[in-house]
Write a structure and sequence with these properties.
Layout lengths: L7 H8 L7 E4 L9 E5 L5 E6 L3 H17 L8 E5 L4 E5 L4 E2 L7 H20 L6 H24 L6 H19 L4 E3 L8 E4 L4 E4 L6 E3 L6 H7 L4 H11 L5 H25 L2 H15 L16
Antiparallel strand pairs: 1-2, 2-3, 3-5, 4-5, 6-8, 7-10, 8-9
Helix pairs in contact: 3-7, 4-5, 4-8, 5-8, 6-8, 8-9
Length: about 300
Amino acid sequence: MSRSPLPPALLAWAAERLPGPVGVADCSWPRATSRVWRLDGPDGTAAYLKISPDERAYDRETAGYAYAARVLTQGQSPRLLAADPLLRALLTSALPGRVVRDLPLERGAEVRLHEDAGRLLRRWHDHSGTGIAADRQAVREAMEARAREADECRTALAGQVPGEVLALVADAAAEIPGLTDRLPLRFLHGDYATRNWLVDTVGGRHGLIDFEQARYGVVVEEFVWLFGALWPTRPDLRDAFFTGYGRPLDGVEERLLVLLTVRLGASYLRTGLREGREDLQQRGRLALTRTAAHPAGRPNRTGRHRAD
């Protein structure tokens, strides 16, 4: 739920851009930065109104919607109907379907959905350029920050995790920037998790929402949540996804994916221990255990990247 009701001035701004009066339903995610409402008109039409948490998120999302409009077909993503940078407000069309996360699906339908998701993301990436020098610098700085965080986690988690896991966290600190420099950039969706996938079970169509994290990066960043949370227990879904994507990951990509997931898991665990949050501790330990068991997750004791 959102942390405050829809401001009347914002509702008036949106209503001016929609036919007829609208009903309002809060559909925010349960976190303070999520502020999203569904607006339903008398004729059955619907739209969504979102307030971006900050200017950078607003800029990324408007860029993401513009990119989606160019590269995805009608029905694969919402369309941006109006935007106001001063209000940080975005008004978008609605897509048919339901959010995939926690949606009960028959196993075959789930496999087909993941193949469709891989195919859609490949279309997204294939239409991207490789960015400019400023994009490469921004990615490098972001990856250096993740490496520093991994190093901080390594110190904080000493004695809390097995030695081989701690060694892998150290590898993340040492290797993430260099591996990233070896890979091309693409324009990313940035949050390609099942909470942002829609499926229309009647029409069988797959859609994509939420472009708040759209930016340039390396493609394996798109897979971190799937790799850490879903694919270890469902290798059939990973196989289906990359069948749709059209190619497997190479060695450098596989190693970087493991280390980015390790960094995320270590961050969850450190935060959970510091704040006494069992949910984050469990999430972090699970991600670390799963990645340590992956063939590309063996600690690097030779001083050379395992991707070499």
